């Protein structure tokens, strides 16, 4: 007896998506959607969305009771195809969906140098074209060349069958040093690149390549013009020209191309549009100067350019008056004077950097990679039409041991530049840092030392200070109006001394003196027959007393009843006494009161 088991699930099984190979734009590709089921009589329905194409449905049994249903779609891959979805639907209404991301590739063809440079003459511009086709518009390439300072343009266009083409047109200017080298163009895509190359064949310019300008007819003067002259594109150039003046009083000088067309004329209407506002004659024609300056030199401004003159309606032609311009795409590299291989940090070094140029109106500007202490620029003419500009600087080597770079950059007109670099091995940075920090460290240390010494002296003085030098106690806090009017007084603070009470008449003539008051005390000694009195003076709130003893002779006063004579008053002398370290003079008024007191006593 065979027992069979069933596995029931409450949701639909998700379909499985797969792609045959890597889908590439413009090519045919296939994607499949598969699901397993157990009902061959009512199989599930598979639906695909996201990409258009043709479907093929297949079904097969995998094992007992399990069937497989597959839908395969064939389509032409497009750039915008991002993903595909597959939905399975069962008879009971259950559904399940799966999604697959399509990593669509953007193919491109190999780049081709459609127009190679071939054999060229030095300094003569040549158009070189490279082209590449690709499928995705968003994957447009960047085409680069292995030569810098060359002018190039990039154009793209759409071709039939959803294909795009990128074309780079290079204006190549070769020199004799480029002969045998490789010219390479490279198309760089987001996911790769492709290149093509050509071997350069450069020949030297010679007059045999051009038909001579001179002929035996009409030649009356000889000019001094170099037949070949170098010029930097986008800069300016001065073609040297001079002739022997024979008092001909020429009215105008004219430069023209060998094959026709006026390059310079004092009438602007005669000049070719290509050269308008870019040419002028330097110097005085009456002194035999006829040099031509061309500004913003173009790659195809090779010439040859020839000079002739006019006097009224008569033309004067010159022998050796034509010049061919050998174009250069890049300026010359500056040359630096030698520097020591090893230098100490903080030492001073002088170095010069020189470069040749052919544009005296706009000479190059130098830039250094170090901060200079002094700088000087000089100009000299090395040969006719060629100038040398030299920059000499003095700089201090900065700290930091190791190999450092010193770079001089010559910047030409319209931002063309060349640089030279030398290496310098720097040592002794630690001692340099110590020396450089001394001007700051020493004053700071002196200030700190002064502060520390001052603090120590103040501390010692405070410890040894006598109590007599301490500041006086703070004055008593001002009492409130209530405290001053009230008879009660706070016990927690000292009671101020009471002011001296005004003495009555009796107290003033009484023989007793109140304690703690200034007064005259009569001694308890009996009267002396010699009419003398012992008097003492006391000062309020002062523990010191001043005794005043004056021997006053006074006669005996008889009783008034007995008609006694008035005693003769002897005025006591004023004495000077010292109280609490101060000298006080007893007021004469006190003396007068004393005399009155004695008289009253006698009367009594």
From TrEMBL:
The keyword Transmembrane helix applies. InterPro entries: Ig-like_dom, Ig-like_dom_sf, Ig-like_fold. Residues 107-201, 334-425 form the Ig-like domain. The keyword Protein transport does not apply. Keywords: Membrane, Transmembrane, Transmembrane helix. Signal peptide: none annotated. The chain crosses the membrane at residues 440-459. This is Uncharacterized LOC113133269. Residues 517-530 have a biased composition (Basic and acidic residues). Residues 517-537 are annotated as: Disordered.
């Amino acid at each position: 007896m065979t027992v069979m088991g069933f596995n029931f699930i409450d949701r639909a099984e998700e379909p499985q998506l797969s792609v045959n190979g890597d889908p590439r734009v413009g090519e045919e590709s296939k994607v499949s959607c598969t699901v397993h089921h157990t009902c061959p009589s009512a199989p599930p329905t598979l639906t695909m969305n996201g990409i258009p194409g043709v479907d093929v449905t297949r079904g097969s049994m995998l094992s007992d009771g399990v069937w497989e249903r597959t839908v395969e779609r064939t389509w032409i891959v497009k750039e915008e195809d991002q993903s595909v979805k597959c939905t399975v639907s069962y008879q009971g209404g259950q559904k399940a969906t799966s999604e697959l991301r399509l990593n669509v590739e953007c193919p491109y063809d190999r780049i081709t140098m459609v127009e190679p440079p071939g054999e060229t003459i030095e300094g003569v511009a040549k158009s070189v074209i490279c082209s590449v086709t690709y499928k995705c518009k968003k994957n447009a390439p960047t085409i680069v060349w292995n030569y810098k300072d060359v002018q190039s343009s990039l154009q793209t266009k759409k071709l039939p069958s959803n294909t795009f083409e990128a074309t780079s047109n290079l204006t190549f200017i070769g020199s004799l040093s480029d002969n045998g080298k490789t010219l390479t163009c490279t198309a760089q895509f987001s996911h790769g690149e492709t290149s093509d190359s050509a071997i350069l064949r450069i020949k030297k310019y010679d007059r045999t390549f051009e038909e001579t300008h001179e002929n035996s007819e009409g030649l009356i003067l000889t000019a001094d013009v170099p037949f070949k002259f170098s010029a930097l594109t986008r800069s300016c150039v001065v073609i040297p020209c001079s002739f022997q003046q024979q008092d001909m009083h020429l009215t105008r000088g004219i430069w023209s191309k060998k094959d026709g067309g006026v390059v310079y004329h004092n009438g602007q209407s005669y000049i070719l549009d290509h050269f308008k506002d870019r040419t002028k004659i330097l110097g005085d024609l009456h002194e035999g100067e006829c040099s031509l300056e061309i500004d913003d030199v173009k790659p195809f401004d090779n010439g040859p350019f020839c000079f002739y003159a006019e006097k009224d309606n008569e033309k004067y032609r010159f022998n050796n008056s034509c010049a061919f311009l050998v174009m250069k795409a890049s300026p010359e590299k500056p040359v630096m004077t030698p520097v020591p291989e090893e230098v100490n940090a903080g030492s001073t070094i002088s170095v010069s950097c020189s470069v040749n140029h052919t544009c005296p109106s706009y000479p190059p500007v130098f830039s250094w990679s170090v901060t200079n202490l002094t700088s000087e620029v000089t100009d000299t003419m090395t040969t006719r039409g060629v100038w040398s500009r030299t920059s000499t600087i003095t700089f201090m080597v900065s700290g930091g041991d190791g190999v450092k770079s010193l770079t001089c950059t010559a910047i030409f007109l319209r931002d063309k530049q060349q640089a030279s670099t030398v290496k310098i091995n720097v040592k002794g940075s630690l001692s340099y840092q110590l020396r450089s920090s001394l001007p700051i460290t020493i004053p700071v240390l002196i200030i700190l030392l002064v502060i520390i010494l001052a603090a120590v002296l103040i501390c010692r003085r405070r410890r040894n200070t006598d109590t007599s030098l301490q500041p006086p106690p703070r004055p008593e806090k001002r009492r409130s109006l209530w405290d001053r009017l009230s008879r009660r007084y706070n016990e927690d603070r000292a009671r101020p001394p009471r002011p001296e009470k005004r003495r009555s008449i009796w107290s003033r003539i009484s023989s007793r003196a109140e304690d703690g008051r200034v007064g005259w005390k009569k001694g308890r000694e009996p009267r002396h027959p010699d009419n003398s009195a012992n008097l003492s003076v006391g000062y309020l709130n002062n523990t010191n007393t001043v005794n005043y003893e004056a021997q006053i002779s006074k006669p005996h006063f008889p009783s008034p009843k007995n008609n006694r004579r008035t005693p003769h008053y002897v005025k006591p002398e004023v004495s000077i006494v010292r109280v609490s370290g101060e000298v006080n003079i007893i007021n004469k008024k006190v003396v007068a009161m004393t005399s009155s007191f004695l008289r009253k006593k006698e009367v009594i």
